[in-house]
Design a protein that fits this description.
Distance between the termini: 41 Å
Order of helices and strands: HH
Shape: elongated
Helix content: over 70%
Number of helices: 2
Radius of gyration: 20 Å
Largest sheet: none
Strand content: under 5%
Oligomer: single chain
């Protein structure tokens, strides 16, 4: 069995860098979506606003369940 520790270290570093890029993109899109959603609130109908609040409440409950 051939074990190349340098190649393993390099591949782990590339995986960590890749995951960091994906995480940065996710956070960026999350922030962009939040800004667009809050910018759209004043022009929402009552039904749309209630749907938005219900969706926000469900998201917060799911986050609260997943955190502990």
């Amino acid at each position: 069995m051939l074990h190349l520790s340098a190649a393993t270290g390099a591949s782990e570093a590339l995986v960590i860098i890749g995951l960091g890029i994906v995480a940065a993109l996710f956070v960026g899109f999350l922030i962009l979506g939040a800004v667009r959603a809050f910018r759209a609130i004043p022009s929402m109908t009552t039904k749309q606003f209630l749907f938005f609040m219900a969706l926000l409440g469900v998201a917060l409950v799911v986050i609260g369940i997943l955190l502990p």
